[in-house]
TrEMBL record:
This is AI-2E family transporter. It comes from Egicoccus halophilus. Its main location: membrane. Residues 325-371 are annotated as: Disordered. The keyword Cell membrane applies. One of its GO terms (cellular component) is plasma membrane. Residues 331-348 have a biased composition (Acidic residues). The chain crosses the membrane at residues 6-30, 51-76, 130-155, 196-213, 219-245, 252-269, 289-315. It comes from the Bacteria. One of its GO terms (biological process) is transmembrane transport. It is a multi-pass membrane protein.
């Protein structure tokens, strides 16, 4: 367990040193695992590789843009109402805690909420004055562009990229390298698809509960819960707490407690039923390893590190298990070595030998004719 955590920490630390270059290259792997079936289906109907890859990316971008476009107006329209009810909800909490049996003096919470609202109102002004805002925006733009370019080539030339990488390995290690890469890709795909399914189930159950309770921002909160579900443990707790706070601010203590019970019930369903069934075959990690991996990732790369920590740990564990099982059978090693492109040095030697043979042949022909 400690070995896996150490490898995860080293990988994430190295990624943090060259984030602009490495992060898009790594992040592009996740949508590639989802879009690969689309490109395969398009290729079966004779769509060229480049066009099928481009169409798959456009479909994904269109779907995401549609969701965001539908959610933003809902959030903007309901924020004023929610802001007004937030102070009332906090006042109810203060009064409830001040009464028996608690007898706690927590006055001033509503003042803190109003202060936070004022600070959030000035956030845009502060951000505009930040010296590095323009550079950060430019860096993010470069990262997004690089991500789409890398994703395109993953979809178009994925197998060729893999085979080219395998060809750089010693011939005896090519079968092991290809096997490790294929298993890493399989683990990543299973993990990401499984996590998306778990997050979707969480969002549906909690979202339906919020709609039944007439909690404002129910649909935007469901979308946030879906994306939060991609961050195991941390994301579910954070987005669930946000849903409880919104319900508390709008509907009072009773509604807040009902939503809290709903969130806890769904999270128990996720951890005890959904994850063992859906993710059990993709990752075999102890919950402590998951938690520590997320913590290490958060410290090194923030939210992005929390997102990448578990798949990195799962792939590491899969490769470690593969190494323990020993090398592939000799016939597989020979087949992979024959299928892989030759080593550059070997190819140069062969070309030099062919050239030398070609240079010698005329003289030999001339001598034979003189004889």
């Amino acid at each position: 367990m400690l070995g896996i955590l150490a490898i995860v920490a080293v990988v994430l630390y190295l990624m943090s040193m060259v984030t602009v270059l490495v992060i898009p290259v790594v992040l592009a792997l996740f949508p590639a695992t989802l879009l690969r079936p689309i490109t395969n289906a398009l290729r079966k109907v004779k769509v060229p590789d480049a066009l099928s890859s481009l169409l798959a990316i456009l479909i994904a971008v269109g779907a995401i843009a549609g969701v965001i476009g539908a959610m933003v107006p809902l959030v903007v329209n309901q924020i004023p109402e929610l802001t007004e009810s937030a102070t009332e909800g906090i006042d109810e909490i203060e009064a409830w805690l001040d009464d028996e049996p608690f007898g706690l003096q927590v006055g001033g919470l509503s003042d803190l909420v109003e202060m936070a609202q004022d600070q959030l109102g000035d956030l845009g002004e502060y951000a505009g004055q930040a010296a590095g805002a323009a550079f950060a925006a430019f860096e993010a733009l470069i990262g997004f562009l690089l991500l789409f370019v890398v994703l395109f080539f993953y979809l178009k030339d994925g197998k060729r990229l893999r085979d080219g990488f395998v060809a750089t390995m010693p011939r005896r290690g090519r079968a092991r390298a290809r096997q490790s890469l294929d298993q890493a890709w399989e683990t990543l795909g299973k993990y990401f698809r499984g996590q998306l399914l778990v997050a979707f189930v969480d969002a549906v159950f909690i979202g339906v509960g919020l709609l039944i309770l007439d909690v404002p921002l129910a649909l935007p909160l469901a979308v946030l819960i879906f994306f939060g579900g991609l961050f195991p443990i941390v994301g579910a707790v954070t987005t669930g707490a946000l849903a409880v706070l919104v319900a508390l601010a709008d509907g009072g203590l009773t509604t807040g407690l009902i939503v809290l019970g709903l969130v806890l019930a769904v999270q128990q369903l996720e951890s005890n039923v959904l994850e063992p069934i859906i993710l059990g075959r993709a990752i075999h990690l102890h919950p402590l390893v998951v938690l520590l991996s997320i913590t290490a990732g958060s410290l090194l790369l923030g939210i992005l590190g929390a997102f990448l920590a578990v798949p990195v740990a799962a792939i590491t564990a899969r490769i470690v298990d593969d190494v323990r099982t020993g090398p592939p059978p000799p016939e597989i090693e020979e087949a992979v070595a024959e299928d892989s492109p030759p080593d550059p040095e070997q190819q140069a030697e062969q070309e030099a030998a062919i050239s030398a043979a070609g240079a010698d042949s005329p003289s030999d022909a001339g001598s034979s004719s003189r004889d």
